[in-house]
Design the sequence.
């Protein structure tokens, strides 16, 4: 049996057909029905002439249909393409054209945007609409998702290849979105290693070992029940929230609100007895903490005893916020993974009573830190280097050989990914992450890492969230500028600056603080530094 998501999931559906696979609101779908629905939508893809390596765009909010269509694309050896549901005309048409998309599955509430761009995309052979607002019919050529399921018999199962391409589009912090390509087997191995250990189980060595282990887990009543709070259109939500759970035969619950509703998360944990919750750092953790406290104050505390692990990836998750979660859910394990779509670098696990530091991680076995001249950074030296992620390294960027050559490089016969993160290596070998090199601020000749200053600003009483950017300045070259949101408490600029100076070297403190109602972040909670800088420029009259 090949290491391929579709092939393994088919074997799981045959093994535990009656166990729940996906849940959205009141819709609960078993593994047998999940597999059949995916096979029916796969048949619709095949009937339109799609097959091996066909790119299929998914332009939807979190829902069961997102996962079904994703699975259906894998069934035909196609390539599902995640599309940010915030994208408007030019962004949407750019991504679909760049991906060479031949099909698009979209929510009807996004239909107006699709209608604006379909004439720009001659490669699109198939449009399928998932009705989420009763407003279907906006796109003339679109077929109804439910009708495609009803009119197509399930596609016969086929043999697949471990060399099939898996691709995830990432917007990063700058530039246009880029498709990061993996070979299927490497990506499956990565997430086989991610899910089973959380259940206290060995990692299967081969694809045919998965289903027997899943049967044993299911019979023991120890299944993973996961809630991805982050959007499935991003790697954190899809990979940690869905792939890792489904490879163990687990249940994936998608939330009905299009933005984070912390009370919905906690109600769902309680109702479904969820065992894992996937969030995105402080931006998600703080609202959850506030909702837990609010429920307790009104005498209706949530039962969160089922949660075993809360996972986060790719953004700052500060020690103070972790400690606050552990005070409220003392039995939970907090798993903080640092990495990007281009590669995983390290992790940090926190428990009640344990000691951790923000941005300090245990390196993955194949992670290295290199200086600019190619030397490996010596632990404890204080040298700053570029993090090189090894192990499951992508094949490259779709249709971008120049960027592929810059980011994915071979040193001493070993291939690494260099996404641009800067770090030091402590004397004990742990990774001290400093931030993305492209965001470093040069103020008066000193290099300042925004994440370090952001952490300090967020410790100011009353500050809820913060991003830090560099604004052009005649004296300093760039002036450190904080864009901050409060929790409603009165906080002034002088107070923030003075507080930061008690924690960091004075030159790192913000020169100015701009207060906003919401700090700009992408739907998965990651920093939107471009928007933050524009807020700062507008507020300071520099536009």
Sequence:
């Amino acid at each position: 049996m090949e290491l391929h998501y579709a092939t393994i999931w088919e074997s799981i559906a045959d093994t535990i057909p009656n166990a729940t696979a996906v849940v959205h609101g009141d819709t609960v779908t078993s593994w047998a029905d999940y597999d059949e629905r995916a096979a029916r939508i796969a048949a619709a893809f095949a009937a339109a002439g799609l097959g091996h390596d066909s790119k299929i765009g998914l332009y939807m909010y979190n829902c069961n249909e997102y996962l079904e269509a994703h699975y259906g694309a894998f069934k035909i050896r196609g390539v599902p393409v995640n599309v940010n549901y915030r994208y408007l005309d030019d962004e949407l048409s750019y991504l679909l054209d760049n991906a060479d998309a031949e099909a698009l599955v979209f929510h009807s509430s996004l239909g107006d945007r699709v209608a604006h761009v379909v004439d720009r995309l001659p490669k699109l052979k198939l449009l399928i609409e998932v009705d989420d607002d009763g407003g279907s019919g906006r796109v003339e050529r679109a077929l109804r998702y439910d009708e495609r399921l009803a009119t197509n018999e399930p596609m016969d199962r086929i043999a697949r290849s471990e060399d099939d391409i898996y691709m995830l589009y990432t917007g990063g912090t700058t530039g246009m979105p880029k498709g990061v390509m993996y070979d299927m087997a490497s990506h499956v191995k990565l997430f086989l290693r991610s899910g089973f250990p959380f259940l206290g189980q060995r990692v299967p060595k081969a694809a045919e070992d998965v289903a027997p282990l899943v049967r044993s887990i299911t019979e023991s009543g120890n299944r993973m029940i996961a809630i991805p709070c982050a959007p499935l259109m991003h790697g954190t939500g899809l990979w940690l929230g869905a792939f890792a759970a489904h490879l163990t035969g687990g249940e994936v619950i998608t939330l009905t609100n299009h933005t984070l509703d912390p009370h919905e998360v906690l109600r769902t944990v309680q109702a479904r007895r969820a065992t894992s919750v996937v969030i995105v750092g402080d931006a998600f953790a703080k609202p959850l903490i506030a909702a837990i406290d609010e429920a307790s104050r009104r005498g209706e505390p949530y039962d969160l005893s089922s949660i075993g692990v809360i996972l986060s990836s790719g953004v700052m998750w500060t020690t103070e916020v972790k400690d606050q979660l552990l005070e409220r859910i003392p039995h939970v394990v907090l798993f903080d993974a640092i990495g990007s779509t281009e590669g995983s670098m390290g992790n940090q696990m926190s428990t009640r009573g344990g000691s951790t530091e923000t941005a300090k991680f245990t390196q993955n076995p194949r992670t290295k830190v290199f200086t600019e001249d190619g030397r490996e950074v010596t632990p404890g030296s204080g040298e700053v280097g570029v993090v090189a992620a090894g192990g499951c390294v992508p094949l490259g960027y779709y249709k971008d050989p120049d960027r592929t050559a810059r980011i994915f490089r071979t040193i001493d016969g070993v291939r690494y990914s260099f996404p641009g993160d800067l770090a030091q290596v402590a004397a004990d070998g742990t990774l001290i992450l400093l931030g993305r090199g492209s965001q470093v601020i040069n103020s008066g000749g000193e290099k300042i890492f925004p994440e370090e200053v952001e952490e300090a600003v967020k410790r100011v009483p009353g500050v809820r969230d913060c991003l830090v950017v560099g604004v052009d300045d005649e004296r300093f070259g760039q002036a450190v500028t904080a864009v901050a949101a409060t929790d409603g408490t009165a906080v002034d600029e002088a107070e923030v600056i003075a507080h930061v100076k008690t924690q960091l070297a004075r030159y790192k403190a913000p020169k100015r603080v701009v207060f906003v109602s919401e700090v700009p972040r992408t739907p998965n909670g990651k920093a939107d530094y471009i928007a933050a800088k524009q807020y700062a420029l507008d507020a300071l009259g520099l536009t």
Observations:
- The mean pLDDT is 93.
